[in-house]
Structure formats: structure tokens, C-alpha cells
Amino acid sequence: MLHPSYSDLMTVVNSEVEPGEQPVVQSRYSIVMATSKRARQIIGGSEPLVSAKGKKPLSIAVEELYNSKVKIVGDEE
Fold first, then answer.
1. Are 36 and 47 in contact (CB under 8 A)?
2. What is the DSSP string of the chain?
3. Which tens digit of pLDDT belongs to each residue from 32-75?
């Protein structure tokens, strides 16, 4: 089982959305796409934004998202 869960990640990502506005992330697919994109950036040489000792790029990307170090923006932004 993954920690944090998809629902935990969705809650964190959508926590800054004003009441009445549409959430940034509405599905697991959006979380998967965002974390995989960030993991590819880390593999490509981007500096991790959290402590990364011995962690795989995807684990780092999930932790960054959970700790609000990276943001998911909508298509229009």
C-alpha cells in the first residue's frame, strides 16, 4: 500500500481551493500524471525539494506533492 494514499494526496492538493471553486485534482489519474512527470524531472537532473537519501524518484515526487513543495496547476494556468 502506498503512503500517503491517493485520497490523502488529493486532499492536500485541493486544500488551497476556495469553497465553491472546482478542485484542481478530481481523479487518481491526475495524481499519477503529476507525480510521474515530477519523477521524470528528478531523473533528468532536477534537484529534489525534500530529503532524498536513498529514495527512488517516484517516492521523492510523492513526498514533494504531499508536503506541498510542488503544485499541480490546471490546463488554463
1. no
2. --SS-HHHHHHHHGGGSPTTSPPS--SHHHHHHHHHHHHHHHHTTPPPSS--TT--HHHHHHHHHHTTSS----TT-
3. 999 999 999 999 999 999 998 888 999 999 999 999 898 887 66
Angle at 10 between CA 50 and CA 64, to 5 degrees: 5
| Backbone torsions φ then ψ of 62, nearest 5 degrees | -65, -45
Q: What is the pTM of this model?
A: 0.81
- The terminus-to-terminus CA distance of the chain in angstroms comes to 33
Query: What is the C-alpha R_g of the chain?
Result: 13
